[in-house]
Amino acid sequence: MLGRLSDEDLTYLFTGYGYKPYFVEGHEPERMHQLMAATLDSVIEEIQGIQKIARSQSSARRRVADDYSAQPKGVDRSKFVDGKPIEGRGAPISSSHRFGNETGTPEDSRRLDEELPA
Fold first, then answer.
1. Which residues are paired to 84 by β-bridges?
2. Which phi and psi (to 5°) does residue 80 adopt?
């Protein structure tokens, strides 16, 4: 399926997925081997450059990332107002409702109606 897309469309697709695509094209096996080896060498150099930059960043930047990763499970920084956590907003519902399956009990529906704002 992907073989039918143009190089431009493939570039957009894989860039959207977060990748940087490289194209190595041809039909002669010996030449393709050389082109592929040269492309891989370039990619490895690029990755090593990215790693070098990331590893040379100040420890202050790493501490900010560590601060977020050290939060207890379930803590969401977006659920704070004026620096105070928003509590009591959760609606205890069955997993069937969370995944869009409408086979929950009438009690689940009643709790949803009571807990969720209009």
1. 81
2. -125, 140
Task: State which H helix or E strand residue 80 sits in.
Answer: strand 80-81
One digit per residue, the tens of pLDDT, for the chain of length 118 reads: 888 999 999 999 999 999 999 999 999 999 999 999 999 999 999 999 999 998 888 655 655 555 555 555 555 555 556 656 665 555 444 444 444 555 567 777 777 777 776 6
From the centroid of its chain, how far is CA 91? Answer: 27
Distance CA 30, CA 63 (A): 49
CB 94 within 8 A of CB 108: yes
Nearest to 22 by CA among 34, 5, 33, 10: 10
Tokens of 47: 């990755």
